[in-house]
Amino acid sequence: MAKLTSRAEDYSKWYNELVVKADLAENSGVRGCMVIKPYGYAIWEKMRDEMDRKFKETGHENAYFPIFIPKSLFEAEEKNAEGFAKECAVVTHYRLKTDPEDPKKLIVDPEAKLEEELIVRPTSEAIIWNTYKNWIQSYRDLPILINQWANVVRWEMRTRLFLRTAEFLWQEGHTAHATKDEAIEETEKMLHVYADFAENFMAIPVIKGLKTESERFAGADETYCIEALMQDGKALQAGTSHFLGQNFGKAFDVKFTNREGKIEHAWGTSWGTSTRLMGALIMTHSDDLGLVLPPSLAPIQVVIVPIFKGEEQLQQIDEVAYEIQSKLKAKGISVKYDNRTENKPGWKFAEYELKGVPVRIAIGARDLENKTVEIARRDNLTKETKPLENLDVYIENLLKTIQEDIYRKAATYRDEHITKVDSYEEFKQVLEKKGGFISAHWDGTAEEEEQIKNETKATIRCIPLDNQMEEGISMISGKPSNQRVIFAKSY
Amino acid sequence: MAKLTSRAEDYSKWYNELVVKADLAENSGVRGCMVIKPYGYAIWEKMRDEMDRKFKETGHENAYFPIFIPKSLFEAEEKNAEGFAKECAVVTHYRLKTDPEDPKKLIVDPEAKLEEELIVRPTSEAIIWNTYKNWIQSYRDLPILINQWANVVRWEMRTRLFLRTAEFLWQEGHTAHATKDEAIEETEKMLHVYADFAENFMAIPVIKGLKTESERFAGADETYCIEALMQDGKALQAGTSHFLGQNFGKAFDVKFTNREGKIEHAWGTSWGTSTRLMGALIMTHSDDLGLVLPPSLAPIQVVIVPIFKGEEQLQQIDEVAYEIQSKLKAKGISVKYDNRTENKPGWKFAEYELKGVPVRIAIGARDLENKTVEIARRDNLTKETKPLENLDVYIENLLKTIQEDIYRKAATYRDEHITKVDSYEEFKQVLEKKGGFISAHWDGTAEEEEQIKNETKATIRCIPLDNQMEEGISMISGKPSNQRVIFAKSY
């Protein structure tokens, strides 16, 4: 197995190689679309199941809406349409026919042209609000709290596995409410659900904040986000929650009779996370040997590798290993015992390091004698010898420790990479030499934001929700500012 | 709540009304595409989770492949291409732009025409085998046992909710093997998994069989199926499992070195079930009052309804009801306590009958005195009074009994509707007056099959796997036949 390019050498290349070599995903025969391989999909399933649990716990139900949006519905909410029109796949025909010039080929049948073009959903507000229109008459029909797990298509020109693909998998929550306050409460609630999920399940520390107007979702009055920091000092938006105001309520004429008997437009929210989170996971924790997975997301949490000479010794190790395996399984821990004889232990060690298996148990001849095993942690690469006795309890606790340590390590890195700067000179220096989040004053105008973006490629990632108010002056215009915002280069 | 049209009056209308009134699904703003509503989706989720468990138990992994298939890949396997070309959605452009004649409208940007058209997958053999090509070099890379949960699009002209929709949700298994025998074994194994799922989880009895050549999946060497019988005497194909031979291996040049060191094309299977199963579920069990759900699939298994006069009595009932609820929940039973005061008990009874909740518990003033409850079964509409003591154990057993009884009822109906006939006259009479499965001899030719289809609309649903050999003569041509096959009109 050829070694991975190191992060120091070429971070971007390291990422691309790792995604493919660890069997997470690969490019497909369709421009910009990926194949998510079984190992990668198993990780995504764990994310999905945990998020789904949290959504249901907070009162949401799943449903499914069509993948196609007729053009007339797509264009109904103008800002939303404008935001997505430039990158959408359009279905224009519904049939192929045999090519009269070559019977082995098919061509689009010009007689099967659709009367109205269909857009492959880049996001589903339009088709969903068009449906909600028929579901909502009275305040008694509200709130509607629905989530959808689906594929969406955005015709991105420059794509990268998981981070930016023409098709990706995601969940999109779409809720309708009787009051503005309730809709804002929902928007914020889901942001906290995302943050909790990122930090406690994916072990990724995030900053919760508000987007500036220029970075808002097309069609939203306010976009909340969680921002994570990758190991190369670039930020990654890991989830967004939008307060839609009455924009879609008005565009799709979704009206209801309120408690006072007056007709009003419904208030909306939408919120989403996607397979992009796979990219965040990889770039937050992994190292030059391969993936590092928090135990909560590892399809295999523990791998057992025998180190043996000859069939007889292997049989003795088998016996010990199967017992460990069954005890760990009884505790709900996923364990693989790899006693294949085609590959040497060293090869297996490298393979499971690449795949990010959190704990490796090796059993050799001396271990058999001493009733011990060797335990190696993937996250910090430490090894120790432990007795067989109560090994299951030890491993169970170790997995919890690893989960916490992985989070702590990422949080430490992140905290060390939030730099307060007070001048544009310093801003540019920090951005270039250190990267990470830069906390600085901003004058609140789109102009200054735009200038900084053009000159440095850094954007305002968010205005943190827990910001302390602080008087200052903005870096370029010198205008007064009462709080710092978070800048960074980003994925 | 207006009553449902009865089955006797108009079976088709009854079905359409029930799907909408029970909140399972509705038509959307996109021709032929449905919205699966939360209650319907919750039932589908239960099907999906159980099937997914069975697939994993039999060694399969999930993965995800692109929704688009470039035309050149789509046409590679000729029969498959021919079979789906007439009903596929085609993406031809990747951008919209503002209409120069009306800035509020969008039009397809002619400059954003794709070099090669993309087909929205009607089934994924093409894109998947094009991917497998790179995964398979040696027999050691085989078998590949992958399943995908996805949406697919088939441009059907006449659509009906769940039964036939332009877009539907499904799972598609795609496996590759080193030998023909192994591929056939896999094809049959998955058929048995489907049959087991249909009978033991959905309470739908099925006949396992082989399709005739004319009914085979486009691109398969053999199609296995499970056939269910609806209450109107029409058959419904509930799942198919295809032995693909080396057809896709050859079309996509998927070659490997076998154990003997020779180069060979891989052998394939594919198998699928879809949201069509929702239609089968509804039409197998439900009645004129609404849905009848087997407990295994019911989002709400037990509903508790208080029958009270005044706030004080309601509070007393609340106390009892919450205790029942918590005891049932502890047993993993899903329970809803509906103590809303806006609706009368009679309204609630009708509502939960419509929704197919298997068990209703009513608690009134006399029940409080006697420490009893009234239990009503949705499936057979019987009621009985039972003591509060050990009610949880009683309900737990009752749910098992209901699951079995629902299956038995459907099996009895099905068995009573398998009619052996020996002449074409009798065939036509039975088909018209009784419907159901007709077991008859057939001469094995596509011509006779076609004639019967044209004259009676009945098709050969399958050649049952457990068929007893029996000498006979075919109904029309009078040629010798050594087994009966199953005919029916079908969905």
TrEMBL record, chains A, B:
GO molecular function, one term: proline-tRNA ligase activity
Keyword Nucleotide-binding found: yes
Location of the protein in the cell: Cytoplasm
Record field: catalytic activity: tRNA(Pro) + L-proline + ATP = L-prolyl-tRNA(Pro) + AMP + diphosphate
EC number in record: 6.1.1.15
Domain of life according to the entry: Bacteria
Swiss-Prot/TrEMBL keywords: Aminoacyl-tRNA synthetase, ATP-binding, Cytoplasm, Ligase, Nucleotide-binding, Protein biosynthesis
A Pfam family matched in the record: ProRS-C_1
InterPro entries according to UniProt: aa-tRNA-synt_IIb, aa-tRNA-synth_II, aa-tRNA-synth_II/BPL/LPL, Anticodon-bd, Anticodon-bd_dom_sf, Pro-tRNA-ligase_IIa_arc-type, Pro-tRNA_ligase_II_C, Pro-tRNA_synth_II
UniProt domain Aminoacyl-transfer RNA synthetases class-II family profile: residue ranges: 26-294
Family: Belongs to the class-II aminoacyl-tRNA synthetase family. ProS type 3 subfamily.
Subunit annotation: Homodimer.
Role description: Catalyzes the attachment of proline to tRNA(Pro) in a two-step reaction: proline is first activated by ATP to form Pro-AMP and then transferred to the acceptor end of tRNA(Pro).
PANTHER family for this protein: BIFUNCTIONAL GLUTAMATE_PROLINE--TRNA LIGASE, PROLYL-TRNA SYNTHETASE
Classification via HAMAP family: Pro_tRNA_synth_type3
Comment text on domains: Consists of three domains: the N-terminal catalytic domain, the anticodon-binding domain and the C-terminal extension.
The protein's name: Proline--tRNA ligase
Organism (species): Kaistella yananensis
